[in-house]
Amino acid sequence: MTYKTHIIGGVALAIAINEYLIPIEGIELVYYYGSAIVGSLLPDLDHPKSWISSKTVILHYPFRKLGHRKATHSLFAAILLWAVLTLPFGINFLALGSLLGYLSHLILDILNPTGVPLLYPFTKEKYKIGKIHTGDTGEYIVTVLLIIISVVMIRI
């Protein structure tokens, strides 16, 4: 998936949680959705040509040797991110947004035939449920559906 689809997916999941499970209001919404956007891009820090790697060369450096869709594309990495963001401050909207964005990235990449190693480092098996290639018509359809679903979920 492209970075744009990952951003839309992260925001869509954040909208769902905010509208139906954990309401967040005021200025916290800006940080919540902002962190969902950042979280939706973080797994691709391991890819040298990803959008986030091109914008954050220093952050990309330690992850580049891991290889794409390995450690950063796992539930273990998502839990580690959650721990890093909650241990110092407790559960907070930045951690929640980041985690939701991160998880949405993994969910979307499962739709790609390459799959993702969800249970890495315990197993390197890649899980996949789709055949949607990056940038193809299938990704466009997923993106449009995510936008429509997001708009429908928002309670004004």
UniProtKB/TrEMBL annotation:
Gene Ontology MF terms: hydrolase activity
Keywords assigned by UniProt, alphabetized: Hydrolase, Membrane, Transmembrane, Transmembrane helix
Pfam name, any one: YdjM
Highest taxon of the lineage: Bacteria
InterPro entries to which the protein is assigned, alphabetical: YdjM (IPR016956), YdjM-like (IPR007404)
Keyword Transmembrane: yes
Transmembrane segments: 74-96, 134-154
Protein name, entry field: Metal-dependent hydrolase
UniProt organism field: Zhenhengia yiwuensis
